[in-house]
Amino acid sequence: MRQPQRFPWLVVAVLWTACKGGVETAPSKPAAGTAAIGGSGAGAGASAAGVVAVRAGTGAGAAGVASAGRASGSQAGAGAGAGASATPTGGSGAATGGPLLGTCPAFPPDDAWNRDVETAPSSAEWTAHLRTLVGAKKLHPDYGNSGSEHYGIPINVVPKTQPAVGIQFDDYPEESDPGPYPLPGAAQARIEGGTPMACDGDCHFLVVQEGTCHLFEGYACQYRSDGWHCSNGASWDLSRTSAGQRPAGFTSADAAGLAIAPGLVRYAEAQSGEIRHAIRFTLHCTRANYVDPASHAAVPSGCSAQSADAPPMGLRVRLKASYDISTLTGAAKAVARAMQRYGMILADNGSDFYFQGEADTRWSDADVEPLKNIPSDAFEALEPGTLKH
Questions:
Q1: What pLDDT does 67 receive?
Q2: In degrees rounded to 5, what are phi and psi of residue 191?
Q3: What gap in Å lies between CA 250 and CA 238, rounded to an integer?
């Protein structure tokens, strides 16, 4: 299976770059019987507090892929009507020693997403390739708020009793985990890039079910008269390590075959001062290979499948220990420190060095703007291991 990339957002990306400093795509939907954890979307009246059930988010899209993948760039989603709740979507759990999604572990502490790589060996070769590919770009947080526009990818949290409903996978059923899924209703669901009935971009739909601690993620999702439709989807058992949950060569709701939610910067953990996991990020070109923990390669239109400078999906980069983060404070410092300790994992195609977070109306400029000053050459690539295809 190969997912199509969509490029209609490229023109809009220029506008976002001028207004927000860049682009990412993919809308998310809210779930019925759940509370929204933060709305995403232009003009959306997203909740001011983290909500118990649904979060809105961002996604990327790009057309004409040579090998399954999607372009990523943050876009304003629709978070209107998101209800506030006292329960945050993710923080660090004392019981598990690792990050949480709702009350569930975001995979075990020894999972690739949660692995401390502060002393892992770097790769001078891949670091040089990244410099050539990216040039003098700077880091860009692909979440936050600008007036009535809210950026980020929402995470819907539903209870164990949430009824399972059927879902139609229109494009890649052979690489999708079959339903039914415990999805929220269209009126409550939060989707990246709009509403369940009208979204733009990747339309990622992320749902965590508490009690079972399963994560359900879909790409290009929407609600129609006959129910939920997605291009493809994946189900994850959050109590098990993510490695091996996707067959080799399979994609997921992300081009790299990874879970999306565990790699998002969550508001609660950033405000706590400590983020205990790697962060999802995007580059405009990748090659026809992937490395662990990814399970799928993607080559966007206009990129060479075997470009010497294009990295494989799953490549991890790390903010250099020598980069001074002492002038940063609060949530911004927590993010930078996580990038030094856990790094960022290449998960999708999109704007260079964009990294993603959950949509939450409480993000302030102080939380995100200082991070835009970090140059991409302050990062080093880690030894990737065996290239797969």
A1: 37
A2: -125, 150
A3: 19
